[in-house]
TrEMBL record:
Family assignment from sequence similarity: Belongs to the oxygen-dependent FAD-linked oxidoreductase family.
Signal peptide feature range: 1-23
PANTHER family in UniProt: OS08G0158400 PROTEIN
Protein name per the record: FAD-binding PCMH-type domain-containing protein
Protein keywords: FAD, Flavoprotein, Glycoprotein, Oxidoreductase, Signal
PROSITE patterns: FAD_PCMH, OX2_COVAL_FAD
Domain FAD-binding PCMH-type: 67-243
Entry's Gene Ontology molecular function annotations: FAD binding; oxidoreductase activity
Length: 524
């Protein structure tokens, strides 16, 4: 009996794949399909709630304006069944699918589509439960959960457990972990994706797969191979990591002439990547527009304040770090500080402060930039007011993990990553063009100081300048898509690109899940 039911279920599953909606009005056909499969929470473009919901998770205003293509519908699945039914209905309606978790994609890929392809957004914001099994060192997080919600739940279960991932609380775990996920604990415990032990993936056929049933190539690909290529990750099983009761956080800002700041940053390159892995010291450098620069050092140490300050003073006396620049706090209090929030309870809010217009690029450095090069670099920056660099130290656990362990490949030999950001607050075409042109020129200058052949980049700092592939509405692309995509694929994933194509072929041969920088299947 049970076996027959199972058989019947399989037939239903299969036939549902071949439902096509025959209607000139695909909106109402989509609505009918969603209703009949029990999906209740969605809104179509004619409704009032639509614009508010669409805007809610747009973190880069470059992709909010009237000139940006808008989705036909926004669907908010409330369960994994809703999620698979949403995908099946969108396929039946011949709509391209965009999956949005936190909406922090630097290029807006979770809520836009190119070439006039009609599309809908599956927004995971209400799939945000995090379950930490007490007494176990693991958690299950639905992929619409923000990093702040994960941190909140983990700390609530045990003050000496943590999860290593990025510092902005509203970043979604769906896109973040899919791209690796670097943060303050990464020198100790690797990127977020290094700490994923299982996942539930809904594929383009609506199958609900776990690690065993998706297979090791696909499970490998979803941990760092970038979001939007494989299917929809419904949830992640995370390995939690131990932290001491008290950690130390320090901030120290040094402003002045480019030469004086360049000396400090030049020295930082030799210190930060070689600190004990319990020590994280990053630096962010901002231009002033008037020829000076300002460097903000952020320290996060799995050690007491006394031990941290005395060790840092010995290894980096030039920084002149006083105990008064540091505080001893619990791990979750450090998270609140680095997220720029005031209290632990704010960690669970998806509301972002003030989104702005921005464009970013990234690089990796393997050989320290010499003093003359550092001065020229900061001179460049000093002439621009609306720009900054973030230098993230690698080394420690980042260097211990092999480059092909997961798709995120930037491991041993990388001293630090660079992120370049320009931002503006009022949209004018001339302003945008001016800022973006400045960034591209600066990036061009930096080529002499960073990795080459290929010039590596971090997929979480997505940059469409690295190349794109245009897909049609059925996911069809140029015959040389695999070699076109290699241009950005090898910059983000180095030698792992080929295995990603193989994994794509195994899970989404029809290329249902695509975007201008997705991984193509073979012969697509
Ligand atoms: C303010 C800010 C701070 C940041 N800080 C860090 C940091 O400290 N460290 C770091 O590594 N990165 C950082 N990032 C980059 C961030 O990790 C990436 O932009 C990430 O892709 C955002 O994930 P999201 O879910 O919020 O974005 P979304 O825009 O929702 O998604 C990004 C991509 O993933 C896909 N996707 C989303 N959810 C799923 C899912 N469940 N299954 C499959 N695909 C999915 C989307 O379709 C899209 O292609 C930061 C970004 C911002 C804007
Ligand atoms: C959404 O954002 C756009 C662009 O910034 C704006 O024009 C529109 O009014 C916003 N919609 C709502 C409901 O706030
Ligand atoms: C339905 O969507 C709204 C946002 O429009 C959200 O606040 C609500 O929690 C969702 N309901 C469920 C059951 O997920
Ligand atoms: C509606 O969907 C059908 C297939 O289901 C497709 O052929 C048609 O082009 C779509 N119409 C519009 C206006 O998008
Ligand atoms: C809390 O986490 C620590 C690891 O930091 C672990 O040793 C301890 O057993 C956990 N306590 C409980 C009650 O689970
Ligand atoms: C630039 O820095 C120098 C050295 O700290 C300082 O004397 C000068 O006033 C600064 N110039 C500006 C415009 O802030």
């Amino acid at each position: 009996m049970a076996r027959n039911l199972h058989f019947l279920f399989l037939i239903l599953l299969n036939t549902s794949l071949f439902i096509t909606i025959h209607s000139h009005d695909n909106n109402s056909a989509l609505t009918a399909c969603l209703h009949s499969s029990g999906v209740k929470n969605f809104t179509v473009s004619s409704t009032l709630a639509y614009s508010r919901l669409l805007n809610f998770s747009i973190r880069n205003l470059r992709f909010a304006g009237a000139g940006v293509p808008k989705p036909t519908a926004l669907i908010l699945p409330c369960s994994v069944e809703d999620l698979r039914n949403s995908i099946l209905c969108l396929r039946a309606a011949s709509l391209a699918i965009r999956v949005r978790s936190g909406g922090h994609s630097y290029e807006g890929l979770s809520y836009t589509a190119n070439n006039g392809v009609p599309f809908a957004i599956v927004d995971l914001m209400t799939l945000n439960r995090v379950r930490v099994d007490s007494g176990s060192l693991f958690a299950w997080a639905e992929s619409g959960a923000s990093l702040g919600e994960i941190y909140y739940a983990v700390a609530a279960s045990n003050r000496t457990l943590a999860f290593p991932a990025g510092s902005c609380a509203t970043v979604g775990s769906g896109g973040h972990i899919a791209g690796g996920g670097f943060g303050l604990l990464s020198r100790k415990y690797g990127v977020a994706a290094d700490n994923v032990v299982d996942a539930i993936l809904v594929d383009s056929a609506g199958r609900v797969l776990n690690r065993d049933s998706m297979g090791e190539d696909v499970f490998w690909a979803i941990r760092g191979g970038g979001g939007g290529s494989w299917g929809v990750v419904y949830s992640w099983q995370l390995r939690l990591v131990p932290v001491p009761e008290r950690v130390t956080v320090c901030t120290r800002t040094r402003s002045g002439s480019t030469r004086s700041v360049a000396e400090l940053v030049h020295r930082w390159q030799y210190v930060a990547p070689n600190l004990p892995e319990e020590f994280y010291l990053s630096v962010s450098v901002a231009g002033s527009g008037d020829g000076n620069v300002s460097a903000s050092f952020t320290g996060f140490f799995l050690a007491s304040r006394k031990a941290a300050v005395s060790s840092l003073s010995r290894r980096f006396p030039e920084l002149v770090l006083a105990e008064s620049s540091c505080r001893e706090v619990s791990w979750i209090e450090s998270v609140v500080q680095f997220a720029g929030l005031d209290s632990v309870s704010e960690l669970t809010s998806h509301e972002s402060s003030s989104p702005e217009f921005f464009k970013a690029k990234s690089d990796y450095v393997r050989i320290p930039i010499d003093m003359a090069g550092m001065i020229t670099t900061l001179d460049y920056l000093s002439r621009k007011q609306e720009a900054y660099l973030i230098l993230d130290p690698y080394g420690g656990a980042m260097a211990r993990v092999k480059s092909d362990q997961i798709p995120f490949p930037h491991r041993a030999g990388n001293l630090y990553g660079i992120q370049y950001i320009v931002y503006w607050t009022v949209e004018e075409d001339t302003a945008r063009d001016k800022h973006v042109a400045w960034l591209r020129e600066f990036y061009e200058y930096m080529s002499r100081h960073v990795t080459k052949n290929p010039r590596a980049a971090f997929v979480n700092y997505l940059d469409l300048d690295l190349g794109t592939v245009e897909w049609g509405r059925g996911g069809e692309g140029p015959t040389d898509a695999v070699s076109k995509a290699r241009v950005y694929g090898e910059r983000y994933f180095l030698g792992n690109y080929g295995r990603l194509v193989k994994a794509k072929n195994a899970i989404d041969k029809e290329n249902v899940f695509n975007n201008p920088q997705s991984i193509p299947p073979l012969n697509k």
